[in-house]
Amino acid sequence: MSCSVRDSYIANIAPAFGPAVLALDSAVVAVRADFDTRIFYRMLTYALDGDFRHWICAIDARKKPFKLRFLYGVLLDDPRGVLRAGTGILRTIDFASLEDIDAQLVTDYVREAVSRLDEFKAQLDDR
After folding, report:
1. Where are the domains of the chain?
2. Which among 111, 21, 109, 12 has a CA at the least distance from the CA of 67?
3. Which pTM was predicted?
4. Is the dihedral of CA 27, 58, 22, 48 positive or negative?
5. What letter would DSSP give residue 120?
6. Greatest CA separation found in the chain?
7. Which one, of 100, 105, 90, lies nearest residue 27 by Cα?
């Protein structure tokens, strides 16, 4: 993960929200250290092999609640009932404060999204 992209994102949000980005980023990259990152749609976005058309997840910490968005969230299992509906296939986990960020929860959902990426792409291509 490019710290410069993360740091650039943090530089453009309220300083008080930086620790939330660091906590979420740490949990995300615990799954895959080789994520590609870019600021995409004003979010810190994670993809594999530079494929930002099929990004995995994105951090949106421009205001509270902090959000972790999943492009294919509608297709994820949600045993903890934390995914909030978005538009189309997007789903979001909201965190009201830094203290609410559960690193294991984030890692679990990101791990599933990564493990099912090829399946998600195939299902969406069939639509």
Report:
1. 3-125
2. 21
3. 0.93
4. positive
5. H
6. 43
7. 105
Looking at CATH, the fold of the domain delimited by 3-125 is given as Aspartate Aminotransferase, domain 1 (3.90.1150)
Residues 6+ apart with CB under 8 A from 84: 91, 92, 93, 94
| Residue-wise pLDDT tens digits, 44-74 | 999 999 999 999 999 999 999 999 999 999 9
With the C-alpha atoms ordered 112, 89, 92, 56, is the resulting torsion angle positive or negative? positive
Angle between helices 103-115 and 117-125 (to 10 degrees): 60
DSSP string, 20-74: HHHHHHHHHHTT-TT-EEEEETTEEEEESTT-GGG--EEEE-SSSSEEEEETTGG
Decide: 66 and 48 in contact? Cβ < 8 Å.
Answer: no
Q: Distance between the two ends of the chain, CA-based, in angstroms?
A: 32
> Of 39, 66, 61, which Cα lies nearest the Cα of 52?
39
